[in-house]
Write a structure and sequence with these properties.
- The chain has about 375 residues and is an alpha+beta fold.
- The chain has two domains: about 5-85 and about 345-370, no CATH class; about 100-310, no CATH class.
- Helices cover about 40% and strands about 20% of the residues.
- It has a nine-stranded mixed β-sheet, with helices on both faces.
- Helix 2 (about 30-40) crosses helix 3 (about 45-55) and helix 3 (about 45-55) packs across helix 5.
- The longest helix is centred in the C-terminal third of the chain and has 17 residues, at about 330-345.
Length: about 375
């Protein structure tokens, strides 16, 4: 592969150690991985489909790759993906993201959240749980870290944060990641934090509930900032009211939280088919008590659910994935992140959702080349 655009996809794999015995290698590791990414980009959801689609497109591939022995078999794909070091493969992904998305905008909201690939575990085994970092405005996955189970997110999140360039960003995490060590890890990266407070921090949560109840009884007495956003969509009316405060001495042990500057309560009032529900959500932050900024950032946090997790399930069949050997589940999940980002960063946007664009990529050589930066 010769041009800079081709290097974006192929050169990032060069640093990955080939786990196979050199005397038994029939297919270049870099070429095998490029074929896999292209196959998933074109709608393949497992190694058998990658093999069959690749064979149909062998002449197209040979415009850019040697593929001396043709397309690898699905068994070869499976063995190689199971044996590749997951940390090295994740590092290759982040290196590629840094190349195609060289700098995040200031105040970019980076959501950290985990998702379980439910059928990826062996019988009576633990399925893959992947903690991902998602840039809400850029609409791309920045990196990921696998854990044995959801409870281990507290360990995986600082490890993931340490690999990301986050200066000037706002990192948002749900209650599982609301830990002083994680807040410090975010600040060490030059980023601000907004952390959800639930019953995983029971005393802190109680102090915030008590404060807010007293505030509602006499709001004029307590300095605060306020923001309200109203959204109407498909018969649903939602009003989100954000109350931001800096009375940190009213919280339980505020000194535990590095650079804590504010806390906020967001009241979400939803009306669907005439039925109204109200929910209060509590947050602590290193940001000043700017209700508009906090309200916006918390709203953007939920894009990780709709634009990443939901997309992985619906458009890529993540929960149906049965890849289970060695590191294959983790590495194949990263390949899906490659494919999703390629579609999202395409310079020319096509109509339709991710599934539609994968279908077009399967059939249109020109569109596939466009997504891969080959034209």
């Amino acid at each position: 592969m010769e041009t800079e655009s081709r290097l974006r996809m192929a050169e990032v794999f060069v640093g990955i150690r080939d786990p196979r015995q050199a005397t038994k290698v029939e297919h270049s590791l870099v070429e095998l991985l490029v074929v896999a990414v292209c196959g998933v980009l074109a709608g393949a959801d497992d190694f058998v489909q990658i093999e069959e689609w690749g064979k149909e497109k062998l002449d197209w591939f040979r415009q850019y790759l040697t593929l001396e022995n043709g397309i690898p078999s699905h068994d070869t794909f499976g063995r190689v993906f199971a044996a590749i070091d997951a940390e090295e493969f994740g590092t290759a992904f982040r290196r590629w993201v840094n190349h195609v998305v060289p700098a995040l905008a200031r105040d970019e909201v980076v959501s950290i959240d985990g998702k379980t690939s439910r059928r990826s575990g062996k019988v009576n085994g633990t399925p893959l749980h992947l903690v991902s970092a998602f840039a809400a405005n850029a609409n791309v996955v920045l990196g990921q870290r696998a854990t044995a189970e959801k409870s281990n997110e507290k360990t995986a999140i600082p490890e993931l944060l340490a690999t990301l360039a986050l200066e000037g960003c706002i990192v948002t995490i749900d209650a599982m990641g609301t830990q002083p060590t994680i807040a410090q890890a975010i600040r060490d990266r030059g980023a601000e934090y907004i952390l959800s407070v639930k019953d995983n921090q029971p005393t802190l949560a109680d102090s915030m509930r008590d404060f807010f109840a007293a505030f509602l009884a006499a709001p004029a007495r307590t300095p605060h900032q306020f923001d309200e956003v109203v959204e109407k969509d498909h018969g649903r009316l939602e009003v989100r009211r954000c109350y931001a405060f800096d009375q940190l001495d009213c919280l339980h042990a505020p000194e535990r939280w590095p650079d804590l500057s504010s806390f906020a309560v967001i009241t979400s009032e939803r009306t669907i088919q005439g039925k109204t529900t109200v929910e209060h959500r509590f947050y602590i932050s290193s940001l000043p008590p700017d209700a508009v900024r906090l309200n916006r950032a918390v709203r953007l946090h939920w894009r990780v659910e709709n634009s990443l997790h939901w997309c992985m399930d619906v458009a890529f069949g993540d929960d149906q994935m049965r890849v289970r050997s060695g590191n294959a589940a983790h590495n194949f999940a990263v390949v899906r992140h490659f494919a999703l980002n390629l579609i999202r960063i395409a310079p020319i946007k096509r109509k339709g959702g991710i599934k539609v664009r994968r279908l077009i990529a399967a059939t249109s050589d020109s569109y596939r080349a466009e997504l891969l930066g080959l034209v």
